[in-house]
């Protein structure tokens, strides 16, 4: 069975197009930058990856099952065009709108409509931050307006998702030992029963390459929401992430397969925009699947061998079928039925063995 490679997103280089010469400045310059990046497609989750019944039992409370259903082809030209003129705007009341241009035609969707097209949850708490320390969470949540969010205490988050520490914890960075701060969470410290969820969210929400030894603030908050059955506005996070990535120099372009859903919607609504230049390619990133020998991840983030094969297909051909960042990667950066246990009680009832 295939093993996930931490660098297999580089296989997307085989299908990324050079289209900047077809545009005028300043879009040409933006496209030139985007053409030099890789695309993070997201990862298909195979049934044998883990006990998906267990994962669904926790994800269903906050409508995160959508992360298990991503399995599309990829349209690189559409992705480049989308990111070249993507931006967010806000109404007087603070409502967010996603805007972008395709073939000189402006598209604008409310965040709720955008979420419906992508098939991700819209309701719930909102956060966007690229930070790693939980004491900086307050800077990543809206303090007023329609997306106002009151985050839980740092202690509540830590006690919900992190194993107990004994003494000072260290991690390896650039071959040197560094003390881990109290409000930082290492990947190895995540509760074992939450590990499969953490990896799925990492691959299909965070979508950035780099070291795997510690957990970003937003992911700690998401895992807290899973444990406590609190809905999370995934559309808000993704829309903000898309905008943030376009302002960086060389980060991966995220949500490749999810953007195929947007592409399909637009072409169905605007058939005149559809032409032969939009070629769909099979996804090339290795799925999340059971490995022949699952080895524990080491905190210095050793890289594994990259995958070397990719395939392309015509527009109408059906589809075939971990990446955290280090500190210096690019930025200085409900009531349930009586028969159903609460997520936190369910988690606590499990053993420390990952399904």
Order of secondary-structure elements: HHHEEEHHEEEHEHHHH
Work out the helix count: 10
Q: Point out poorly predicted stretches.
A: 292-355
Question: Structural class of the helix and strand makeup?
Answer: alpha+beta
Strand content: 5-15%
Helix content: 25-40%
The beta-strand count equals: 7
Distance between the termini: 18 Å
Describe the strand arrangement of the main beta sheet, using strand numbers.
Answer: 1-2-3
Mean pLDDT value:
81
Shape: globular
- Radius of gyration, rounded? 20 Å
Number of domains: 1
Main sheet characteristics: 3 strands, antiparallel
Region (Disordered): 292-355
Biased composition (Low complexity): 308-321
Biased composition (Basic residues): 294-306
Biased composition (Polar residues): 337-355
Describe this structure in words.
Residues 308-321 have a biased composition (Low complexity). Residues 337-355 have a biased composition (Polar residues). Residues 292-355 are annotated as: Disordered. Residues 294-306 have a biased composition (Basic residues). It is a single chain. The chain is of the alpha+beta class and 355 residues long. The chain has one domain. The protein has helices at 27-35, 52-59, 76-84, 111-118, 154-161, 195-206, 217-227, 234-246, 256-269, 343-349; strands spanning 87-90, 96-102, 105-110, 170-173, 176-179, 185-186, 214-215. The strands form three sheets. The protein has a three-stranded antiparallel beta sheet. A two-stranded antiparallel sheet has the order 4-5. A hairpin with a 2-residue loop joins strand 4 and strand 5. Helix 1 packs across helix 3, helix 4 packs across helix 8 (234-246) and helix 5 crosses helix 7. The radius of gyration is 20 Å and the shape is globular. The model is unreliable at 292-355 (pLDDT under 50).
């Amino acid at each position: 069975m295939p093993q996930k490679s931490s660098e297999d997103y580089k296989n997307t280089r085989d299908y990324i197009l050079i289209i900047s010469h077809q545009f005028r400045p300043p879009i040409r310059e933006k496209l030139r930058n985007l053409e030099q990046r890789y695309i993070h497609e997201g990862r298909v989750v195979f049934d044998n990856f883990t006990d998906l019944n267990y994962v669904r039992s926790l994800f269903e409370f906050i409508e995160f099952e959508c992360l298990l259903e991503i399995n599309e082809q990829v349209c690189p030209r559409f992705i480049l065009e989308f990111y070249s003129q993507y931006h967010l705007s806000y109404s007087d009341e603070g409502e967010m709108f996603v805007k972008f241009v395709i073939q000189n035609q402006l598209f604008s969707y409310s965040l709720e409509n955008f979420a419906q097209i992508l098939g991700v949850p819209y309701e719930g708490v909102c956060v966007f931050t690229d930070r790693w320390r939980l004491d900086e969470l307050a800077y990543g949540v809206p303090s007023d307006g329609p997306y106002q969010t009151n985050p839980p205490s740092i202690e509540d988050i830590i006690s919900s998702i992190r194993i107990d520490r004994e003494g000072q914890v260290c991690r390896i960075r650039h071959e040197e030992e560094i003390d881990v701060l109290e409000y930082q969470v290492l990947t190895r410290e995540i509760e074992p029963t939450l590990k499969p969820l953490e990896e799925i969210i990492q691959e299909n929400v965070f979508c950035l390459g780099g070291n795997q030894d510690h957990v970003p603030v937003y992911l700690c908050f998401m895992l807290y929401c899973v444990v406590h059955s609190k809905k999370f506005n995934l559309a808000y996070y993704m829309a903000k992430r898309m905008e943030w990535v376009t302002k960086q120099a060389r980060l991966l372009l995220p949500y490749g397969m999810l953007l195929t859903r947007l592409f399909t919607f637009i072409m169905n609504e605007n058939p005149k925009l559809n032409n032969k230049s939009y070629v769909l390619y099979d996804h090339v990133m290795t799925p999340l699947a059971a490995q022949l020998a699952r080895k524990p991840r080491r905190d210095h983030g050793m890289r594994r061998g990259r995958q070397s094969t990719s395939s392309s297909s015509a527009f109408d051909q059906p589809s075939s079928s971990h990446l955290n960042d280090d500190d210096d990667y690019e930025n200085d950066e409900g009531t349930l039925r009586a028969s159903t246990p609460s997520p936190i009680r369910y988690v606590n009832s499990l053993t420390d063995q990952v399904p």
